[in-house]
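Internal tracking record. Fields below are filled automatically when a chain is submitted to the structure queue. Please do not edit lines marked as system-generated. If the sequence contains nonstandard residues, flag them in the REMARKS field before resubmitting.
Queue: standard
Priority: normal
Entity type: single polypeptide chain
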Amino acid sequence: MIYTVTLNPSIDYIVEVEDLRLGDLNRMKRDLKLPGGKGINVSRVLNQLGVQNKAMGFLGGFTGRYIEDWLHEESISSDFVFVSDDTRINIKLKHGEETEINGVGPVIHDPEANALLQKLAALNAEDVVILSGSVSPSLGADFYDKLISVCKQSGAEFVIDTTGAALQKALAYQPLLVKPNHHELAELFGVTIDTREEIITYGRKLLDAGAKNVLVSMAGEGALFITEQGVYHANAPSGKVKNSVGAGDSMIAGFVGTLSLTGDLLEAFRAGVASGSATAFSDDLADREFIEQLRPLIQISEV
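SYSTEM-GENERATED OUTPUT FOLLOWS
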């Protein structure tokens, strides 16, 4: 089973305003409410790919029920811990360019945090856990460490998609995959990266630190896949970018889902790039038909 863990989900409330006037009454041109959170995005794309998975994490209040109901409508299995505070709402305000206003998220109390750890204690060595996104401040900076410890004790593989110190600490536990974009990779090492060769150099440092596979997205320049076996480049298919939210999550879903079905790392890489691109070219997350349409357009070459 593939499990996704979203510690601080949200409803993403997308609001489009044609001419924003601060301090005045504005009317929406259109609006859209979507379940948000990186792990939830991964679950939704895995579901499109026909890969069984279970979404976990924390939900609360009427906003949490909205997300749970949405996942149920999409036939996605879930096993969230329900908490006393409401799940947050993130506002994506579109008025030419996009402005984001993100909620803080609920306070997670110790019994609620422990309940999630107990749920994950039933993992086994055949499972993969995808840990994605931000941590609610009330959980403390070391909560990812606790989740990873549970994974390692059970023998389950884990993927981590976060940044900064949390990612650095996780590398020693040999994650199956890490997926920084080229900006996040530069920030992680406190450097400026200008060339593909520099991306490869610092990507290999992630391997040296413990990661089993490294996938670096480069927007219109495609992506690099760095493993002990070699370094590979995939092109980005052409298309109009509509949506940056969830493209990285879709890439992880395509990679992990295809790897679980085929065991083929390069086909997993191809599917990851196709899935990420399909979401970037869509209003919401990618659907299976669009992913399959883009998959043959992804050309992989050894660097």
